[in-house]
Amino acid sequence: MLGWVITCHDDNAQDMLHRLEEKYGPLAQCQVVSFWHGLSSNMLSRMMCDALHAADSGDGVIFLTDIAGSAPYRVAALMSHKHPACEVISGISYPLLERMLLSRESMSSSAFRDEIVSLGGPGVTSLWHQQQKNPPFVLLHDLYEY
Q1: Over the Cα atoms of the chain, what is R_g?
Q2: What are the φ/ψ torsions at residue 10 (nearest 5 degrees)?
Q3: C-beta of residue 61 within 8 angstroms of C-beta of residue 89
Q4: What are the residues facing 86 on neighbouring strands?
Q5: Active-site entry in 9, 18, 83, 129
Q6: Residue 109 three-state SS
Q7: How many angstroms separate the CA atoms of 77 and 97, rounded?
Q8: Which H/E stretch holds residue 114?
Q9: What DSSP line would sit under 46-79, residue for residue?
Q10: pTM (2 decimals)?
Q11: CA–CA separation, 105 vs 80, rounded Å?
């Protein structure tokens, strides 16, 4: 099963998890990290690292963030490069998480990423989708053999 790390500003992530658990019961492999004004980047990184390891059973972890480019998104993006089967999604909402809840049991992380982005509408994207729009920089001398 895919682990979830829900990370949003203020108490939005905790509110979403609370609503899901009220309706569906306790959610295994689901962690919350709240980003409060004034929280240092170092502390946020440590909290998200702990959450990643607590949510991961080996099948992968989905970071679910509220705002693309914000501190939780940036920290998740850095962490995702070091861990296999990690995806970073931004623009999440409670209805979208509820719709995707059962998919965590049957989908790969990349299939989950594509499904949540297609269902989420224009405000939902992923790190992978953003990288496809802006491919990595390649030095010209790397293109030619000498």
Answers
A1: 16
A2: 55, -135
A3: no
A4: 61
A5: 9
A6: helix
A7: 20
A8: helix 109-120
A9: HHHHHHHHHH-SSS-EEEEESSTTSHHHHHHHHH
A10: 0.88
A11: 20
